[in-house]
Amino acid sequence: MVTDEQQIERVMDALGHQTRRDILALLHANALPVGDIADRLQALSNDADRLNAQAAAAQTASRSLDLARRSFEAGNSGILDVIDAERRNAQAQLGLARAKAQRLMDTVQLYLALGGSPVTPPATPQDASGAP
Fold first, then answer.
1. Is the dihedral of CA 105, 92, 61, 70 positive or negative?
2. What total number of domains does the chain contain?
3. With CB atoms 3.0 to 4.6 Å apart as the test, which of 4, 69, 92, 101 could cross-link to 58 if both were Cys?
4. What is the pLDDT of residue 3?
């Protein structure tokens, strides 16, 4: 059976050494809930995979659209082929945007799980002037 700490270790290994040190320092300093953070880190790892797949799909759809347009201009295909390629390209771009949005949402969730504040307090006039 894999423990929460083992799961965090695996995900942090994938994130890199500097991020790993930062997260470990926060965990030890603040006694944060390990399970929630492990879930958020796993979500970010999954998001990275999804984002890469969607980026590849968007690139493929863009190339397909270009080929469909060239084929139409050469008289080898009809306008419906171009319209269909445009539809597939738009769907791929939408999928990419959704994957990016999900990754950003999961980043915010990790930030909150690590003890971050959802709102930055407004600056007071004393903060702006530098006076105590």
1. negative
2. 1
3. 92
4. 52
What distance in Å separates the CA atoms of residue 36 and residue 109, rounded to the nearest whole number?
Answer: 10
Which has the higher per-residue pLDDT, 44 or 36?
A: 44
Task: Give yes or no for residue 12 having a pLDDT over 50.
Answer: yes
Asked if residue 90 is part of any domain, the answer here is yes
| Helix 4-15 and helix 34-73, axial crossing angle in degrees, nearest 10 | 40
HSE-CB for 22 with a 13 A CA cutoff: 9
Mean pLDDT value of segment 92-104: 95
How far is it, in rounded angstroms, from Cα 10 to Cα 2? 11
Domain that holds residue 44: 8-116
Assigned domain for 95 exists: yes
Q: What string of DSSP letters covers 91-116?
A: HHHHHHHHHHHHHHHHHHHHHHHTT-
